[in-house]
Design goal:
84 residues, mainly alpha, 67% helix, globular
């Protein structure tokens, strides 16, 4: 399966997993609020490295690479917002 063939169900488990959206605040936003800007960027970078490191090990390489991409996109967004 190629990246552009990810089903909506598979993508939802990457971009908006149910277990991270059970309250009125999305988990990633609560994490961001609890950290400095540098700390949050480090958190995002760590997750990028984690998913890239293990994508061949868990049996769901496309899902882990998609998660890696999600965190990379979020890091790019954070850096872009700082530049503006």
């Amino acid at each position: 399966m190629r990246l552009n063939e990810v089903t909506p169900e598979q993508w939802d488990s990457v971009s908006r997993p149910e277990h991270y959206n059970t309250g009125s605040v999305e988990c990633i936003e609560a994490i961001k609020a609890s950290m400095s800007s540098e700390g949050f960027k480090g958190y995002l970078k760590g997750n990028i490295e984690k998913y890239l490191w293990r994508y061949e090990q868990k049996g769901k390489p496309l899902q882990d690479l998609s998660k890696c991409n999600w965190y990379l996109t979020r890091l790019i967004k954070e850096i872009t917002n700082e530049s503006n």
